[in-house]
Specification:
single chain; 420 residues; alpha/beta; Metallo-beta-lactamase, Chain A; Serine Threonine Protein Phosphatase 5, Tetratricopeptide repeat; seven-stranded mixed β-sheet; six-stranded mixed β-sheet; 15 helices; 13 strands
Length: 420
């Protein structure tokens, strides 16, 4: 049985068209990310376009029940694939403006397959993070969106931006004044949309109802924590009455929105402070992660639950992103291969059979996983045990991406008998 809190979090992705104000709607739960529509005098503006052409078609069908006006422009809040891959469906007429930040660039699109890079590793870890290939009964959610959604045309409808924003700008959305604000956060190319007359803010992925994904376990360049926190201050200072995020349900009410933005900023700053202090006192990153917890005033905020991002992952990302891989312990300047380390551990345990018995009997699931890795490095058949332990960990896990990864890797390791 999945973690009940994670199941409850899935209510954030109930499929519906939500009216934010007169002439403004959000499509939630149709895909991994939300799509927004603004009705102007004679045309529509679409903000973000979902992850697949099929999802985009489904959303457009619902939008067409509301308005038959032509789509006049598309705005990308940022370049993550789940926000840009249905654009060809919404771009009904050729060469309509497709607007994005000047910094628009993604590690998930326009990959140079001829370049020497870990793209295959990125692809594999992305499949695991989002549980692609798992049975629908195994996937509770993505943490940021519904697990079950149309996958036809995944990544297929991306259209390159043809209008780049180099600084904060005011733009006319066919009779509706909007401000495009550069607000780097989850990505460097974040562009948020602010409607001053209705006080509606489209925040992209700089805020959603979950602890922020300060590090994506699929693998990602360092996301600057301080910059993200600063952008949340910028958004809070707008004093929006309605917050329409790139994932999860909209938030209504100026006081509530101030709280969610301010507390999320405080959570990011707390990770910076706690991790920095630990490093300055010579603590290992393992010990920092073993003790980090949000303070009580933040831990009780339902939108800071670790459904998508995770404190320990954030601490590790901050440590490596600011000072690199070396943790200050000279022991780690040298290296043992996995097989050699496993050989020494097995010797200490009294042989590989004894090591397997210790793994099998261990009540500490994390320790059991680590012992399984040593056994697998020695070509000892511990794959089934490791898969079983990962499934147990998945059932208690509140973080959707961790759960998906445990289950995906468990399935993979048993199908392929391939050491991780």
């Amino acid at each position: 049985m999945p973690n009940p809190d994670l199941l409850k979090h899935s209510k954030q992705f109930e499929k519906k068209i939500i009216q934010l104000s007169d002439g403004i709607w959000s499509a939630v739960g149709f895909a991994a990310s939300n799509v927004h529509m603004i009705e102007g005098v004679d045309s529509l503006t679409i903000i973000d376009t979902s992850e697949s052409t099929k999802a985009a078609e489904n959303i457009l069908t619902e939008f067409r029940k509301i308005s038959q006006k032509p789509i006049g422009r598309i705005i990308y809040t940022h370049s993550h694939r789940d926000h840009i891959s249905g654009a060809s469906v919404f771009a009904e007429k050729p060469k309509i403006p497709i607007i994005a930040s000047e910094a628009f660039k993604s590690d998930l699109i326009d990959l140079d397959t001829s370049a020497v890079s870990p793209n295959k590793s990125l692809e594999r870890r992305t499949l695991a993070q989002f549980g692609i290939g798992l049975e629908s009964s195994d996937r509770v959610s993505l943490g940021c969106g519904p697990a079950d959604r149309p996958m036809e045309g995944l990544g297929a409808g991306y259209v390159k931006p043809n209008k780049r924003i180099i600084s904060n700008s005011e733009i006319d959305l066919d009779g509706i004044t909007a401000k495009l604000i550069l607000a780097p956060g989850e990505t460097d190319d974040h562009l948020v949309v602010w409607l001053p007359n209705t006080q509606i803010l489209f925040s992209g992925d700089n805020w959603y109802h979950a602890f922020p994904n300060l590090y994506a376990i699929r693998g990602t360049p360092y996301r600057d924590f301080q910059t993200w926190a600063d952008s949340l201050t910028t958004l809070a200072n707008l004093k929006p009455n309605i917050l329409a995020p790139g994932h999860t349900m909209p938030v209504f009410g100026q006081e509530k929105i101030h709280d969610v933005l301010k507390s999320t900023r405080e959570a990011i700053l707390y990770v910076i402070k706690y991790t920095s202090e630990g490093m300055n006192h010579g603590k290992s990153i393992d010990d920092i992660c073993a003790s980090i917890n949000l303070p009580k005033n933040l831990k009780t905020k339902p939108w800071l639950g670790e459904y998508y991002g995770k404190l320990t992952w954030a601490a590790r990302a901050f440590a490596s992103g600011t000072l690199g891989w070396y943790d200050g312990n000279p022991t780690h300047l040298g290296n043992l291969s996995s097989a050699k380390r496993a050989k020494y551990i097995a010797q200490l345990a009294g042989g590989v059979d004894s090591l397997f018995e210790q793994a099998r009997k261990s009540t500490d699931l994390q320790w059991c996983l680590e012992l399984c890795d040593h056994l697998i490095a020695l070509n000892y058949p511990a794959q089934d045990l490791k898969a079983s332990v990962m499934r147990k960990l998945a059932e208690d896990e509140i973080n959707a991406t961790a759960r998906n990864t445990y289950l995906w890797e468990a399935k993979n390791i048993q199908n392929n008998r391939n050491p991780l």
